[in-house]
Amino acid sequence: MKRLFLAFLVITICGAILLAFSATEDASTNWRPVTQPYPGTGLQIKYPFAISSEASYRLEIAVPAHLSDAIGLPEKPPLECILSIRIISNSVVCVDETIRTLEHEGEYLHGGLDFYTVKNSWDLKRGQYDIEIKSEKTPELIASNGAMLTLEQYKYPVESILRDRFRLLSGFVLCGAGLIGLLLVGLRIKQEANEK
To answer: What is the tens place of the pLDDT at every residue in 116-168?
Structure first.
């Protein structure tokens, strides 16, 4: 009985670890660890951030649209810029790129926002980082409307949904099975003790 009790205890612990990992990976600080104003020409921002699990990240820029910007067009031209990105961890440069084009990704009509992204994504491991962003040429649209720049986790939707849901479901199943097993073994041990 002791071996069975230990087996169910291990199953419960494994399920709890899967659930805890799901909670930390889906945390908003891991999903979008950096949100800062887009720096004007000649300005630089530096911001520390932490990632709790390895993932791919990319830049997204949200630009408020004016009524004259003709929101609702199916496609908008890319924005020309010169934006230097450096991501550093423990004095080691992980990313050092100069971005020259921001591609139009979509728009949020109700909120009046246009979204632009960078084609490249960067694989970052768990850890502490500093991001340095320097603008040498700011697009006219961003200079006039302003913008927020976000480093966001980039996942392929189907792969992400399947992997995340499978991990969460596995955690619940293992925790549930382990707790039920512990309860049944505990009742059996108690019953055997009463029979003696």
So the answer is: 999 889 999 989 999 999 999 999 989 988 999 999 888 655 565 666 677 77
Beta strands at 113-117 and 44-51: parallel, antiparallel or unpaired: unpaired
DSSP string, 101-131: EEEEEEEETTTTEEEEE-S--EEE-SEEEEE
Coil vs helix vs strand at 94: strand
The pLDDT tens digits of the residues spanning 77-120 come to: 899 999 999 999 999 999 999 999 999 888 877 677 889 999 88
Q: How far apart are CA 70 and CA 38, in angstroms?
A: 22
Residues 6 or more apart whose Cβ sits within 8 Å of residue 105: 60, 115, 116, 117
d(CA 34, CA 48): 8
- Smallest CA-to-CA distance from 15 within 55, 7, 31, 160 is with 7
How are the residues of the chain apportioned to helix, strand and coil, as percentages rounded to the nearest 5?
40, 40, 20
